[in-house]
Amino acid sequence: MSGADRIFRALFVFYLAGFAFYLFAPLVIMSAASFNESRFPTVIPWQGTTLDWFRAMWADRAMWEALWTSAVVAFFVVVISIPAGTAAALVLTTLHARARSFAYALMVSPLLTPGVVIGIATLILWRQVGVGGGLLLIVIAQASFIICYVMLMVVARLQRFDRTQEEAALGLGASRFMVFRRVLLPFLRPALLASAGLAVLQSFENYNTTLFVRGFETPLTVFIATKVRTGLTPAVNALALIMIAVTVIGAVAYELARRRRLRDNRAADLPH
Amino acid sequence: MRELFQRFGGWLASFFLILVAIWLVGMVLAPNLMTLDYALRPNLPPARIGGPEDSYSLANFAYLANEAVHRTIFFKTVWASALVTLTTFVVCYPIAFWMAQRATRAQLSIALMALIVPFFVNEVLRTLGWYIILAYRGPLNAVLLGLGIIERPVRWQGDLGVLAGMVYAYILFMLLPIYNAIESLEKAQIEAARDLGAPVWRIHWRVVIPHAKAGIATGCVFTFMLAAGSYVAPALLGSPGSRWFTEIIYNWFFEGGDWNRGAAYALVLLALCLLVVLVTLRIFRVNLADVAK
């Protein structure tokens, strides 16, 4: 290895370390601040270690209400977007060339629309029939783009589906509905479960769209953002730490499951 | 369409079509068309709606064009989003290249996990993390003061804070598409270029980047769109001097009380994003189907 290469490599390792630091510093500092006695969340100066902020968070009724609101919204978003996304994927895959690319462009367009615009458009449409911001509109506005994610995940799974399975079932006398229920749906199951998980996450973490259609509701993200502006205490950090822990455990579990599945698939793809 | 009915039978096929129609017509097209209708009408008290003054005009769009402050904020949002996109690209490219071409299996596995985990965390919380770091009496100022790099605390909130928070928020949207694109590049091509005497920068410029252009376009499109439409980062990390166009839109709806003007502003933002998407895809000759993966 030449001298220039070595310098280059050292620089890169340095860069990598900086990148890792940039990635994790905000999360670590935010989490650490929830144990600091200081009234404003910070880590410098450290005024003593305490669990009081977790108690304060636990006792905060508004926080529990926000959590409940988010959970209700996420539930209905999943109930709407899984069937609609699956239907969209099935319709899309049975269309031909031109119609298909047109439908595809229309179906992914919500992903290319800024979240605030989705919220605004929903708010304006429903005002015509006298419905203002609230739970209903939050669910509708969120579902309108979360359906895209479900659609994309189901389409990806459908590409590996072997249609001869359906034909075999039909040949054996199953009705079309039975074929759908017993052959296609079980095949789609992993994609549906994964997209349900993704939908919950997207719904919980959405802020831009929700902000415009929330009416007088306060989902968790709005609750946190409001706290930051009106009176941030480390109780919010305590909540953040718990949410980070839950999402990290969920993300790691999902990633491990995905890798195991990949490995199993690879093993199954070996010559028969 | 016929295939759908043949495959699933009348009932099920109709059910699917109805669901898709509700989604695309009721939740995607109708809201946007109604927004356009709103944007083209004047803001009138309920009693005068439908009256002689209630006619279509471009007045709400003209207002944006003539109002100096809003116009400035709009263009600032455009170029600041472009800056966010460029910075995110520069930050991500070396990592993406390393992950796709150099890292060992174990390193790659750790790197992917380390990247994905922070991005499962809520955007509001990630921004809150930056809010705490950048606070006037926060850790960043304390460390820089301690090292003697600065003499008095710096107010990071404002343009710099928004940039740091946004780049952070969109790293994954830039990194993963580029990583996927570079991964499919044969190592032999890079080696061939090197054996023929190409310096490092030219290998990237002539071999890696052209190969990865679809991924780069995808990453840039998403980052730009997310940045231009962002609300959290400017609201929490910004200062009055770094207002974002989305904040102006919000004010029309919930403080200014002029939904028609707000609708026009929102459509301008939408048009900007679609324009950037289409132009980028055309320049890089990328298909929409490659973008939304």
Describe the structure.
- The complex is a heterodimer of chains A (272) and B (293).
- Chain A is an all-alpha fold and 272 residues long.
- Chain A is built from 11 helices and no strands.
- Chain A has a domain of 175 residues: MetI-like (MetI-like fold), CATH 1.10.3720.10.
- The radius of gyration of chain A is 24 Å and the shape is globular.
- Chain B is mostly helical and 293 residues long.
- Chain B has one domain: MetI-like fold, CATH 1.10.3720.10.
- Chain B is globular.
- Chains A and B meet through helix 1, helix 3, helix 4, helix 5 and helix 6 of A and helix 1, helix 3, helix 4, helix 5 and helix 6 of B.
- Chain B: Its main location: membrane.
- Chain B: It is found in: Cell membrane.
- Chain B: Keywords: Cell membrane, Membrane, Transmembrane, Transmembrane helix, Transport.
Features of this protein?
heterodimer; A: 272 residues; mainly alpha; MetI-like fold; 11 helices; 78% helix; globular; B: 293 residues; 14 helices
Summarize the structure in short.
Chain A has helices at 3-33, 52-58, 61-94, 97-108, 115-127, 135-158, 164-171, 176-205, 208-213, 220-230, 234-269. Chain A has 272 residues and is mainly alpha-helical. Chain A has a domain at 62-236: MetI-like (MetI-like fold, Orthogonal Bundle).
Question: How is this fold's topology laid out?
Answer:
The complex is a heterodimer of chains A (272) and B (293).
Chain A: H1 3-33, H2 52-58, H3 61-94, H4 97-108, H5 115-127, H6 135-158, H7 164-171, H8 176-205, H9 208-213, H10 220-230, H11 234-269
Helix pairs in contact in A: 1-11, 2-11, 3-4, 3-6, 3-8, 3-10, 5-6, 6-8, 7-8
Chain B: H1 2-40, H2 59-66, H3 68-102, H4 105-120, H5 123-134, H6 139-146, H7 159-183, H8 187-195, H9 200-211, H10 213-228, H11 232-237, H12 245-254, H13 259-284, H14 288-291
